[in-house]
Amino acid sequence: MNPEISFAVRSSLGISLNHGPPKFNSNDAFNNVLSKSCRTMLFDPTGQYFAYVDGLNLHLLCTKDWKVIVVVQNTKSYHLSFSPKGTYLCTWEPFIVNSANPQGSPNLNIYKSENGKLLKSFVQKKQTNWEPQWSLDEVLCSRLVNTDVHFYDLDNFNVVNKVNAYKVASYSISPIIGTYFIVFHTQGGSGQPSIGRLFKYPMFENQQSIANKSFFQADKVEFYWNMKGSHLLLLTMTEVDKTGGSYYGKQGLHFIGTHGETAMVTMSKEGPIYNIAWSPKGTEFCVVYGFMPSRTTLFNLKCEPIHEFGAAPRNSIYYNPHGNILLLAGFGNLRGHVELWDATSKKLIGSCEAPDSTLLQWSPDGTHFLTATTAPRLRIGNGYKIWHYSGALIYEQSYGEKDELYDVSWQKACKDMFKEPMVSFQKVEGIVSTQPQASKEAYRPPSARNRPPVHFNLHDDENTVTSPSAPSKAAIKQKKKRENKKARKQENEPNTNALVTSNVSVVLTGDEEKDKKIKNLKKKLDAIAKLKEQQLQGKVLEINQLAKIKGEQELMTELQKLQL
Question: pTM score, two decimals?
Answer without folding.
Answer: 0.75
